[in-house]
Amino acid sequence: MFDALSDRLEAVLDRLKGRGTLSESDVDEVLREIRLALLEADVNFKVVKTFVARVRERAIGAEVSEALNPGQQVVKIVNEELTGVLGDQSAPLELGSASPAVIMLAGLQGSGKTTAAGKLAAHLKKKGRTPLLVAADLQRPAAVDQLKVLGARVDVPVHAPEPGGDPDADPVAVAAGALKEATRVGAGVVIVDTAGRTNVDDAMMEQATAIKRAVDPVETLFVIDAMIGQEAVTVAKAFQEAVDFTGVILSKLDGDARGGAALSVAEVTGRPIKFASTGERLDEFEAFHPDRMASRILGMGDVLTLIEKAEETYTAEQTEELSDKLLGEGTFTLEDFLEQMQQIKRMGPLQNLMGMMPGLGKELKDVEVDESDLKPVEAIIQSMTPEERRRPEILNGKRKKRIARGSGRSAQEINELLRNFEQMRQMMEQMGGAAAGRGGKLAQAKQMRQMQKAGAGGGMDMDALMSQLGGSGAGGAGGPALPGGAGAGAGPGGGAAPQRNKRVPPRKKKKKKGKR
What we know:
Number of domains: 3
Helix content: 55-70%
Mean pLDDT: 75
CATH topology of the largest domain: Rossmann fold
CATH superfamily of the largest domain: P-loop containing nucleotide triphosphate hydrolases
Radius of gyration: 27 Å
Number of helices: 25
Shape: flat
CATH architecture of the largest domain: 3-Layer(aba) Sandwich
Structural class: alpha/beta
Number of strands: 8
Low-confidence stretches: 435-516
């Protein structure tokens, strides 16, 4: 969503990084461009005015003039102030000790409340909670059925009016009755999905207020469509006055609208953004971290969220086993590679993952990466026998023809995959040798895990992490290409340096002899 804003801000700030001195006129010129970029991204004009004033006050003071690198210091100030606009600090759910703890969702019709309810239920269940979904949106046709479908998909019970019951059922009574139902089914968290309207009106606000009085929620979350535009601020203020929400859920953050207005909500209302919906899948829902979002917008990546996703996908034993295989002496096989591809897909859309890597999102911003791009690679490997996956060197022409028929790919694509895989494996062996010289590959793996833990606590040294990962910081994306070809998992057909082929030299010699 914030690609255009990110590109504009990166271009402006990149011009500062190499400068040894900065005058007041230099700062004002940069701030004019930043102001235009934010306004074009639909950020509220009052928020822009306050933001620019704060940056200017700090940028023309001793904080910059006495810095060793003034340009980088201004970038740091912009990053910190943008973090402040987004809410300054992360704000987790405050469920307290009450059981059941009630979470009420409010917002306009079409903002994504019902979907957000299902995603929040899945998120809480993953955290070890036992949620109950409540269908108190009796205004919109099929809202109850939609919530039931979502509940079934995440295996969470749904409390709703009986089918064929009173068509004029009272949503307040439904919400209140959910508390007894939660006790009956042993649910520790109740998520109430309320009705909305296309526009703010008194009837909607009165109903939301009545439901809040009936269930006494510990958290009231305002769901706002990130594509709504400047109306976001007006709507947010109206809901704040009516139900006094405690936090915000940004929905549809994967859209292609400018989205800046939604980023103004935290600054205007003083209420934190607690969650962001980053896609259509139920697992594309994450806690909102202002500092990480600011880093993404400024093109600095989001390594901490990437590590957290990896920790959710991989167990400690899997991580250690993979470290041994990657840095071992040729023990990483096509079977392992297939397993890793499938694990990475569970972490979320590849395009989102690349955007979290410093420098990589910028380098590949015009490259469309889809999970379907990995299917040809999976088809080829799955068409091999277990022995062929473990020992690809045994693949001769006859075996490759069989694999080509089974996978629906060409022999050329199979050869391309094998060459790329061998290149990556040799690169990993070289890394393993270098690691052994510094105390062994297990020591390096432990060091990486210690860095991950430090990062989860907020004390991560980003330069050290990027060095460990073999990257090149925010300036570019180092490291080997995936065996799929160009970019990250682009499937067979991507270029790679040719590898050794024992049959090539004899042919060349015979041709030379023939010419003589």
